[in-house]
């Protein structure tokens, strides 16, 4: 949730009530508070322990492997969005990282100027004309919209780690889900601290930033709106890396 706020570079902090994009604000704030409580008391401490105990090269390998798996679905969505060049580039990226990069442990594609192009099914629905609908905060998953929540369900089903795909053993699969959640939260440790420092109202800051980012992703993927060029890399930066610890102003990541 904190990363979504920073990606837009906009610190809108309007008060509660009246935003037409957020007719469910009362409900959403309740879910946001629940998520924040779970994060403070469970997710953040676990992620901090993960960072303290697991060496950085191992954490980078874990992140790269999951990102490589995510690229498979990103490639499919690029094709669904009629962005064949991005889809082909992402397929080649997966093949390169899966072989030379040792099953994705090393992101050799990015090191050779082949940036990651993220695409999901909620974005695909938007490209084909489906509006976002009301803003919606999902339990544990965070900011979304009615459209993106529907896309998230499809994303989950198509996840290479999910049922019927890569892993059939339920305990192993659930362990992978847990590891990915901890890895994702670990990347956001410093970002979460920054959000609390700069936002008068973290809820509205996160909401406005998320909606702006998603609108930018959808508009950028539509033909005639910059669709001939690769979209920016909106994947999570590695905040364990000192070079990435403080994102520069204006950085799309």
UniProtKB/TrEMBL annotation:
Stretch forming the signal peptide: none
Alphabetical UniProt keywords: Lipoprotein, Signal
Keyword Lipoprotein belongs to the record: yes
Stretches for region Disordered: 218-253
Family according to the record: Belongs to the MlaA family.
Name of the protein: VacJ family lipoprotein
């Amino acid at each position: 949730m904190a990363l979504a706020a920073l990606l837009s570079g906009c610190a809108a902090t309007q008060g509660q009530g009246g935003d037409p994009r957020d007719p469910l604000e009362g409900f959403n704030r309740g879910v946001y508070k629940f998520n924040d409580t779970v994060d403070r008391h469970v997710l953040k401490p676990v992620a901090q322990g993960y960072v303290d105990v697991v060496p950085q090269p191992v954490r980078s390998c874990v992140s790269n492997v999951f990102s490589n798996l995510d690229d498979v679905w990103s490639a499919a969505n690029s094709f669904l969005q009629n962005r064949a060049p991005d889809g082909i580039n992402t397929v080649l990226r997966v093949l390169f990282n899966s072989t030379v990069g040792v099953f994705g442990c090393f992101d050799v594609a990015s090191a050779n100027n082949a940036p990651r192009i993220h695409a999901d099914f909620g974005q695909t629905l938007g490209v084909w004309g489906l509006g976002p609908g009301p803003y919606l905060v999902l339990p544990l998953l965070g900011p979304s919209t009615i459209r993106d929540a529907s896309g998230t369900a499809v994303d989950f089903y198509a996840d290479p780690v999910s049922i019927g795909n890569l892993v059939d053993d339920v305990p192993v699969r659930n362990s992978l889900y847990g590891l990915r959640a901890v890895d994702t939260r670990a990347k956001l440790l410093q970002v979460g601290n920054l959000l609390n420092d700069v936002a008068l109202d973290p809820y509205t800051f996160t909401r406005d930033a998320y909606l702006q980012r998603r609108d930018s992703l959808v508009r950028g993927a539509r033909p005639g709106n910059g669709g001939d060029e690769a979209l920016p890399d909106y994947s999570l930066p590695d905040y364990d890396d000192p070079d990435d610890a403080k994102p520069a102003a204006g950085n799309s990541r």
